[in-house]
Amino acid sequence: MPSDTLTSRKIATSRLTMHVLSGGSQPGDRPVLFVHGNVSSGVFFRDDLTRLPPGFCGLAPDLRGYGQTEPKAIAAARGVRDFSDDLHSLVVALGLDRGPGLVLLGWSVGGAVVMQYAIDHPQLVAGLVLEAPMSPYGFGGTHGVDGKPCFPDFAGSGGGAVNPDFIARLRQAGDPGDVAVGRNVVVIGGGMTAIDAAVQSKKLGAECVTIVYRRGQQQMPASRHEQQWAQHNGVLIRTWSVLQALHSANGRLAWATFADVAERDGRLAETGQTWTIEADMLLKAIGQTLDARVVPGIELQGGRIRTDADGRTSIAGVWAGGDCRHGGRDLTVEAVQHGKLAAESIHRALERAPR
Questions:
Q1: Nearest CA among 229, 209, 218 for reference residue 36
Q2: How far apart are CA 17 and CA 57, in angstroms?
Q3: Domains within the chain, CATH numbers bracketed
């Protein structure tokens, strides 16, 4: 029911303690669970919680590691199932599994969470509302209802760039919290992958985690909000530095040397100053490079695929979108929009094609 008052509370479930914002409710109201996206929390939906019509009660939980919910480790090999299992433990703890069917609203990553929930608990779900969702199996690179990878190395899903030995340890661990991480972790990069790697290393028990980026914080691909989220979780960010050397002791990584750099005539140049940092684990998250050999003859601009406004490339019958397209940003919602525009353009082209 509509209410201008929100209730903030922490609920101890069978898996973890979760923070939940909720609006007013009456007996028999149908629950509407609002599930947030990446680098966000339930407070994102505070206005929506007060605007539900009579007969509905809104709840907006913080996913694990976000907001005021317990910051437990996430098992990457399970996709978003840690989140969806947490959500179900909250539903059970609140007794919502015994009332009217749930309406689940998911935004961005939250869309994947509620889809996974509906797959696992279809008997409890009365409706799904999806806003710019991702797949429950990741950002791409999978197909079919069971999330089968398109390629053996999970290319297209982000998994192809991860250290395979580290992934093997994650898969073999009964609890992701048992996976050994270094005491002093250094992450090289400045995008969302670097932020995620740094924060998760901290949550897995690393004492000191440092992100090192070659330019300033304003030039980092990760948003300012994401940078602040990392710093809030105890991650240090050092800028204008490039890796110069790695040093070992007793056959293991012990420390790293970085060179200070400055921008001169649009290019980075070392200043002559260096600094060292203890490091027993180094993670590389320096982005990806387009291999134009995969599509011979395609026109590039700035190292990415040149397209028109609809995503049409220089090759007939080929469209492109997302961050491989010139001007594209590393944003899921923008890639979804590119896909929509390209689909409409493809549809128009097919309608005009001779039959």
A1: 229
A2: 21
A3: 7-131 (3.40.50.1820), 180-284 (3.50.50.60), 292-352 (3.50.50.60)
Residue 138 backbone zone (phi > 0: left; psi -120 to 50: alpha; other: beta): left
Name the residue with tokens 């407070």: 43
C-alpha 333: how far from chain center: 12
pTM: 0.49
CA dihedral 322, 66, 11, 124 (to 10 degrees): 10
Triad 50, 56, 62: Cα angle to 5°: 60
CA angle 58, 74, 57 (to 5 degrees): 5
**Angle CA(248)–CA(254)–CA(260) in degrees, nearest 5?**
100
For the chain, how many residues are written?
Answer: 355
Per-residue pLDDT of the chain (355 residues; tens, 9 = 90+): 444 678 999 999 999 999 999 988 888 899 999 999 887 899 999 989 988 999 999 999 999 989 899 988 887 667 788 999 999 999 999 999 998 999 999 998 899 999 999 999 999 999 999 988 876 665 556 666 666 777 665 555 554 445 556 656 656 666 655 667 889 999 999 988 889 889 888 888 889 999 999 999 999 888 888 899 899 889 999 999 999 999 999 999 999 999 999 999 888 999 999 999 999 999 998 866 777 777 788 998 888 899 999 999 999 999 998 888 888 766 667 888 898 999 999 999 998 888 7
Element (H, E) at 47: helix 46-49
Residue 264 sits at φ, ψ, to 5 deg, of -130, 120
Judging by beta carbons within 10 Å of its beta carbon (0-12, 13-18, 19+), is residue 174 exposed, middle or buried?
A: exposed
